[in-house]
């Protein structure tokens, strides 16, 4: 995770996350927004970007640097910082068991964002390519899922993924 402070004169101020469209344009995702003394974890697409917001972003080094460069070309200096160790947001991986209740379900069907307050950064299926998650991606046994969220929420999601399917419980 990297943190970028949105300058007061940024062209993004006053726009929603959906309007900013950083995911498609820069291939980055917002894990949380630090605003004044509060925190918005896994913000919705309707969340408005404000001046001086500190956005915690997830993306490749190249994507994050491109974003920072573009943001600074329209504004004053942009500071990119590594996420602080005391931050509540974490990037962790969970393995999906072969007999999990989430096998065959789409990301949106298990409520990763709405119920567990997490975001999937990518899915590793062992073929050297990390799958960029869309809500329609179906979980498979053996998936390694990279999750961004608070520790307690990731733990809850992991516990759900570790539940056995009904067919396996009756055996």
Task: Please provide a brief summary of the model.
The protein is α+β, with helices and mostly antiparallel strands and 171 residues long.
Question: What does it look like?
Answer:
The protein is built from 6 helices and 9 strands, in the order βααβββαββαβββαα. It is of the alpha+beta class and 171 residues long. The strands form 2 sheets. The chain has a 5-stranded antiparallel sheet, covered by helices on one side. It has a 4-stranded antiparallel sheet with strand order 6-9-7-8, with helices on one face. Strand 2 and strand 3 (38-41) form a beta hairpin. The N and C termini lie far apart (42 Å). Mean pLDDT is 82; it is low at 75-87.
- Summed over residues and divided by their number, the pLDDT gives a mean of 82
| Number of DSSP helical runs | 6
User: Which percent bin holds the helix content?
Assistant: 10-25%
Please trace the helix and strand order, writing H or E for each element. Answer: EHHEEEHEEHEEEHH
Keyword list:
single chain; 171 residues; alpha+beta; five-stranded antiparallel beta sheet; 6 helices
Question: Layout of helices and strands, plus pairs?
Answer:
Blueprint: E1 2-5, H1 17-20, H2 22-26, E2 29-35, E3 38-41, E4 54-58, H3 61-74, E5 80-82, E6 89-95, H4 107-110, E7 119-124, E8 130-131, E9 144-150, H5 151-161, H6 166-169
Antiparallel strand pairs: 1-4, 1-5, 2-3, 2-4, 6-9, 7-8, 7-9
